[in-house]
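Q: Please design a sequence for this.
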């Protein structure tokens, strides 16, 4: 099929490459000339494992191109909208202006039988509104809402082999004409048995926000338990292992630590609360305010623990922060708890060095006042305390004995509860986790 992908950021660039890999003829369109130039040279403007290899592979076959020219959408059967929906400045709601602009950009090129497929995370109600715009321009074209569930760091695999496909169509009927078209797009994946659900527009939009809200709630639940463990001397890691053995609960996403960040969970739960307020259903989601508050409290808690670890004051203490990205295998620092903690430590008088395998350039743009060092040993050298805040393999593989020779004081605050506490303590380190004795 001939496919256009509007918006070539994280979601769109990966989606365009994966659609070409599935055998389609794909054009990626974006207004950002630098991004398009990079992608055209098979260079990803962000770090995502496997993406560059995939871009090279599909571009060699001639099935993927990139352009800033919207007229390239003409002649395509399927148009994916993959633009961002950032949090509005000073408000909780999502800014859907890029989605609207993408849709209106496609309209002049729509033909009978075409489908427009929204993948961006939008406030519920957006799809029905845009569906009317599509059919107003071309009565035989359709809008499908087909949310994306990809995780950064696993984006390629999550796009080619997602857990499920959700198609939100007008009326929600299985025999809606857009269903067959989208089935053809995803034929290879559907043939391998991946489930597909057809819903109406609002349900499809809500599937995405509900899934992210659930994940955020699960993380904040275990972080709330970490607070209780801190008050009682219990161990949140053992608690998570034990409750996670109950199939109904499950161990995944029960890692207590410095909390969630990134470009999705924090903004999506806020946008969901804002939308519920507009719909008069705000009471249903007041718990998400607490989920957000628990999450933000973790950052303050780490600063307090770091102060304790340094003997009661941060003034002049040389602290090395291991990690700037919001999670490993990503260079994304949007709402990164690691970076926010590093900035708070510096504000409170510590001399902070931040190291990260991939995210330092992005981090320096966001917090230029922090000191960054890409060489891990160099960053650790002479430190009074280490804070492991992003669990990159390079950080979790550190050997307490050899690292001990580099630092001034053997103090480790493990913000992800990922190191072997016994091993570090027996190597002479003062080790502190979160929610652990
Ligand atoms: C998330 C959703 O997982 C994905 O389905 C959606 O499409 C986009 O948002 P992503 O933002 O890439 O994906 O990251 P995810 O792996 O979900 O992690 C989010 C944050 O939660 C990270 O900061 C991570 O460190 C933190 N986290 C995760 C925890 O603190 N504890 C856990 O147990 C799991």
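A: Design:
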């Amino acid at each position: 099929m001939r496919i256009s992908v509007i918006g070539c950021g994280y979601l769109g660039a990966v989606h365009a490459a994966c659609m070409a890999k599935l055998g389609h003829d794909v054009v990626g369109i974006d207004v950002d000339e630098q991004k398009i130039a990079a992608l055209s040279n098979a260079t990803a403007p962000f770090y995502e494992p496997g993406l560059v290899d995939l871009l090279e592979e599909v571009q060699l076959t001639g099935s993927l191109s990139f352009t800033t020219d919207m007229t390239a959408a003409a002649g395509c059967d399927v148009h994916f909208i993959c633009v961002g929906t950032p949090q509005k400045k000073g408000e909780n709601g999502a800014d859907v202006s890029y989605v609207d602009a993408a849709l209106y950009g496609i309209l002049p090129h729509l033909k009978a039988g075409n489908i427009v497929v929204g993948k961006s995370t939008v406030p519920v109600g957006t799809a029905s509104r845009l569906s009317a715009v599509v059919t107003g321009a071309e009565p035989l074209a359709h809008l499908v809402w087909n949310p994306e569930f990809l995780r950064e760091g696993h984006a390629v695999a999550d796009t080619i082999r997602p857990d499920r496909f959700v198609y939100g169509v007008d009326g929600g009927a299985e025999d809606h004409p857009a269903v067959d078209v989208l089935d053809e797009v995803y034929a290879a994946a559907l043939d391998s048995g991946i489930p597909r659900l057809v819903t109406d527009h609002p349900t499809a939009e809500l599937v995405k926000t509900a899934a992210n809200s659930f994940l955020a709630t699960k993380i904040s639940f275990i972080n709330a338990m970490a607070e209780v463990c801190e008050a009682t001397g219990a161990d949140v890691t053992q608690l998570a292992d034990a409750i996670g053995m109950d199939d109904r609960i499950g161990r995944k996403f029960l890692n207590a630590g410095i909390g969630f960040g990134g470009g999705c969970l924090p903004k999506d739960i806020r946008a969901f609360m804002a939308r519920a307020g507009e719909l008069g259903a705000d009471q249903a989601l007041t718990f998400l305010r607490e989920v957000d508050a628990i999450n933000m409290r973790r950052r303050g808690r780490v600063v307090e623990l770091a102060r304790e670890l340094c003997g009661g004051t941060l003034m002049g203490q040389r602290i090395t922060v291991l990690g700037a990205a919001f999670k490993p295998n990503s260079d994304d620092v949007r709402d990164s708890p690691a970076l926010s903690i590093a900035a708070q430590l510096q504000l409170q008088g510590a001399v902070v060095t931040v190291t990260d395998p991939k995210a330092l350039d992005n981090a320096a743009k966001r917090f230029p006042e922090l000191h960054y060092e890409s060489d891990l040993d160099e960053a650790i050298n002479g430190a009074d305390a280490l804070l492991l805040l992003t669990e990159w393999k390079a950080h979790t593989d550190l050997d307490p004995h050899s690292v001990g020779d580099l630092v001034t004081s053997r103090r480790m605050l493990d913000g992800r509860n990922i190191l072997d506490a016994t091993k570090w303590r027996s190597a002479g380190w003062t080790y502190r986790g979160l929610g652990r004795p």
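Q: Thanks. Anything notable?
A: DSSP finds 18 helices and 14 strands in the chain. The pocket of uridine-5'-diphosphate-xylopyranose is lined by residues 148-152, 212, 215, 219, 253-255, 257, 259-262, 264-265, 326-327 (CB under 6 Å).
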